[in-house]
């Protein structure tokens, strides 16, 4: 089982805030002394619930090693369907947490010097400074190493891998995350592997409040002497509004004020397998929705929906999709879209079969069941019998996911009509 990623509130969130666990998995490694030589799976128990954890300490005399202090945990794993019972040697610091701390210190030193350079010559000149560029490159390399070790130790092919270490990292991460969510449930909107989003129009969790609670778990309940796990709040104005889709999987749009973009997350927000018009619709509709809210008073949103349904403004680029085709003999079964498009490309442009392999071909859906046409940039959209209903259905689905069906041109006027009194209706 991986990280704890859930959504608790769907729909429009007026003002979002993000609380990050600082270098979450690396600090969990340091906190619980997780390393390939310190962690052992010692048994399994019945799985009862996501929060069916147990923790305990035990000292044991081991012949040849002396007295060892063990930290035991029973970690629920819904994917496996059991609780995995592990024990971690807390007597001596393991290699991995020691290495993580060394990397933390080195990265902090690099970032400190980078800030000094910026203070000396300013942000703009720092980008052209040779020393700053070198420091930034090293700092990024360390960041990648720190963030990639979890996947490495969980790999069956890793020379320094250990399944127990991976189970501990993700398991303890789920536990702390869920405890924080339970504590501040009223304001929590969603969680990522290493972060929590909250609706600050309802409440506002402070860093101090979150970190005091985490310390009470790690030190007060679990019995550790120091708490390494820390949450950091991104700036109050880093994010604006957001929309969390009530769809399968975790899908959302978040207005990132710091970068001036809308963050799209999840399969339902991406245009993979869909035409480019969906991306354009998302940009036009979602941005205006997040800016002005889901109201007919938001005239920019109303206009954006109306404009995107005006197919006379669509281009061939909006409806074309691309696929890499292969030689016919490389397709083993069925009639995949690549095979269909490859055949159409050969027929239209007289391409030899040997030259098809790996070619990117643009195509569109035309009227009729299972009908397609290959296209070139020079083609005129008005000369092609393209299937408007097929593409409009994609926009319909986008509106449905966003809860904007009332804004559809065919529904908008009926919804906005004000019912007159009976006297006026009858004269």
Quick take:
The protein has 427 residues and is α+β, with helices and mostly antiparallel strands. It contains 14 helices and 16 strands.
Compute the CA-based radius of gyration: 28 Å
Describe the main β-sheet briefly. 5 strands, antiparallel
Average residue-wise pLDDT: 89
Strand order of the largest sheet: 1-8-9-3-10
Number of strands: 16
**Strand content bin:** 15-25%
Query: How many alpha or pi helices?
Result: 14
- Fraction of helical residues: 40-55%
Please explain how this structure is put together.
- The chain has 427 residues and is an alpha+beta fold.
- It contains 14 helices and 16 strands.
- The chain has helices at residues 24-31, 95-121, 123-126, 130-153, 163-183, 207-221, 276-292, 299-308, 316-319, 337-349, 353-356, 388-401, 409-416, 422-426, and strands at 6-7, 11-13, 16-21, 39-46, 54-62, 66-77, 82-89, 188-192, 195-199, 231-233, 239-244, 252-256, 261-265, 321-325, 359-365, 372-374.
- The strands form four sheets. Strands 1-8-9-3-10 form a five-stranded antiparallel sheet, with helices on one face.
- A hairpin with a 2-residue loop joins strand 8 (188-192) and strand 9.
- The chain is globular, with a radius of gyration of 28 Å.
- Mean pLDDT is 89; it is low at 414-420.
